[in-house]
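sry for the spam today, last one i promise. struct tokens for design, 338 residues
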């Protein structure tokens, strides 16, 4: 069984291959601070045996939040709360990463205005974003850099740059939302420029021995948008600056697409093979058989369980128990296994 085997990437050693993917809890306050809820929520999953916990989308600037109740990392005042969250999770043997995010045109907070590569709104319920100037783009690159430095100061083991789900970076990557005619739009190289600049800036402050993850949507599910093959080219443009790709799909535009168990695994498999880079597979993966199939067939290196971990913080403990897998249960819970 591979699910519960160790995995090392850079200096980060995970005790197993199960990841909690970032999931917004919309439970902060207007200032984006960590609350008791966050500590209890993430620490429960650490006690529950998850190998790597990735903290939800955390705004690098206020109008980069998805909602007014997202976590924030835009000021040094955020470090203290994040640090106590990190310490709490680490005390129970999980590694912890944070997803650095900018919501772009999908920001719904009460900030004065919202921004995007081009002034196209997501839907009628959303505001029309203001097109970013080149100077503002440079400013946002710095915001990601500053956020990475704060994440380092808070003690995170890894960072994940949110390049998926129709948020700002994805909006730059896809021709459907990026209609710019300057050096940030047009060719694939130009559309990837913002992401590349962010990664380069982050690398200036993020320690070399800690991994940088990139979350992508490898399919826009629409003609003219990103598909698997295009995403392979994008990853190849930035591969030297990242250590692992967390492969999701969708979110750029409102379209219905087929959702079935493991609906995004083939995307992970293609990126892993074609870009020769470690990946995390995610999306309706809930059974040990599925996890083993993915890992043994080299379709991903790690497997993320999202909603399954919302339903059951002890997903890993219960999976081990049901299948009689050898696992170190938390000392306090040993009587639950034997
Ligand atoms: C409540 C909720 C919040 C989410 N928030 C985020 C987020 O902050 N960042 C992100 O990249 N994905 C987010 N996602 C997507 C999940 O990380 C995951 O990719 C998705 O739920 C599919 O995996 P699952 O079928 O195992 O739940 C969220 C999903 C849910 C259910």
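last one done:
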């Amino acid at each position: 069984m591979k699910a519960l085997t160790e995995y090392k990437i850079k200096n980060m050693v995970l005790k197993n291959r199960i990841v909690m993917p970032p999931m917004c809890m919309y439970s902060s306050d207007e200032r984006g601070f960590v609350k008791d809820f966050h500590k209890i929520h993430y620490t429960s999953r650490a006690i529950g045996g998850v190998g790597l916990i990735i903290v939800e989308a955390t705004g690098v600037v206020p109008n980069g939040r998805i909602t007014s109740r997202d976590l924030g990392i835009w000021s040094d005042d955020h470090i203290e709360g994040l640090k106590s969250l990190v310490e709490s999770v680490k005390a129970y043997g999980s590694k912890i990463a944070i997803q650095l995010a900018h919501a772009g045109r999908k920001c719904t907070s009460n900030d004065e205005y919202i921004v995007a590569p081009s002034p196209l709104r997501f839907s009628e319920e959303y505001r029309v974003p203001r097109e970013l100037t080149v100077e503002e783009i440079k400013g946002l690159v710095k915001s990601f850099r500053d956020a990475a430095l704060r994440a380092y100061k808070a003690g995170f083991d890894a960072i994940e740059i949110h390049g998926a789900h129709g948020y700002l970076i994805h909006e730059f990557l896809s021709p459907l939302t990026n209609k710019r005619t300057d050096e940030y739009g047009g060719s694939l190289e130009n559309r990837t420029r913002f992401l590349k600049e962010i990664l380069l800036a982050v690398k200036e402050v993020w320690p070399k021995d800690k991994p940088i993850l990139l979350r992508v949507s490898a399919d826009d599910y629409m003609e003219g948008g990103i598909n698997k093959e295009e995403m392979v080219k994008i990853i190849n443009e930035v591969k030297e600056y990242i250590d692992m790709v967390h492969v999701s799909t969708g979110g750029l535009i409102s379209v219905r697409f087929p959702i079935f168990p493991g609906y995004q695994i083939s995307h992970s498999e293609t990126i892993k093979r074609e870009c020769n880079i470690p990946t995390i597979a995610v999306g309706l993966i809930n059974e040990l058989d599925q996890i083993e199939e993915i890992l043994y067939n080299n379709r991903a290196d790690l497997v993320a369980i999202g909603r399954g971990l919302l339903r059951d913080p002890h997903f890993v403990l219960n999976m081990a128990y049901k299948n009689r897998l050898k696992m170190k249960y938390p000392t306090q819970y040993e009587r639950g296994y034997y």
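Residues 1 and 192 are 38 Å apart (CA to CA). ok im logging off now
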